[in-house]
Each structure stands twice: as C-alpha cells, then as structure tokens.
C-alpha cells in the first residue's frame, strides 16, 4: 500500500495502475483501491527495511498484517477508477 501523500517510489499510484492495466488488458482497466487504515495499524508495519518515510506500507506477518486482517471488515474502502 502507498501512503496517500507519498513519496511514490514506484511512480504515482495512477501511473502504476495504468501500467498494471496495460500488463493485464483483460481485467477491466486501471483502478485504485483506497483503504482508510488507522494510523496505529500502519505504525505496526514500519520496520527498518520499510520505514514509513519511504511512502510504501508493507504489511507482513508480525509487522501489521494480523492487525490489518482483524480490522479489514470494518475499514472504509472504495474503488477509484482511473481514466
């Protein structure tokens, strides 16, 4: 997941989504899944390898994944289509 404000080391999310859609043209086009993850859960994902300052949040076992899975059903989610 990417922090909304960035930085974006893999390109801006819209550019990344367009690139993925180009690689998989039969899957309906580019879109972004926007999920409002509580800060406390995002903080659990921060490690020396994945500092939040890099803009990427990687939820792994023992680093926020369990907390994210528990909260997932109640989290606000929306799909943003990319033109």
How is this structure best described in words?
The chain is α+β, with helices and mostly antiparallel strands. It contains three helices and two strands. It has helices spanning 13-23, 39-45, 65-71, and strands spanning 31-35, 77-81. The chain starts with 12 loop residues before the first helix and ends with a strand. 8% of the residues are buried.
Strand content: 5-15%
Low-confidence stretches: none
How helix-rich are the residues, as a percent range? 25-40%
- Cα(first) to Cα(last) distance is 21 Å
Average pLDDT, all residues: 93
Task: Name the overall outline.
Answer: globular
| Quantity of strands, as a count | 2
SSE order:
HEHHE
Strands ordered across the widest β-sheet? 1-2
Number of helices: 3
Q: Major β-sheet, in short?
A: 2 strands, antiparallel
Integer-rounded radius of gyration: 14 Å
The structure class reads alpha+beta
Task: Describe the protein's topology.
Layout: H1 13-23, E1 31-35, H2 39-45, H3 65-71, E2 77-81
Antiparallel strand pairs: 1-2
Structure, briefly:
The chain has 83 residues and is α+β, with helices and mostly antiparallel strands. It has three helices and two strands, in the order αβααβ. The protein has a two-stranded antiparallel sheet with strand order 1-2.
């Amino acid at each position: 997941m990417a922090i909304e404000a960035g930085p974006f080391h893999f390109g801006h999310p819209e550019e990344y989504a367009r690139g993925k859609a180009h690689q998989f043209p039969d899957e309906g086009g580019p879109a972004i899944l926007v999920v409002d993850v509580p800060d406390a859960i995002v903080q659990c994902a921060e490690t020396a390898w994945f500092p939040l300052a890099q803009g990427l949040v990687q939820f792994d076992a023992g680093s926020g994944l369990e907390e994210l899975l528990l909260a997932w059903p109640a989290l606000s989610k929306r799909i943003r289509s990319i033109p």
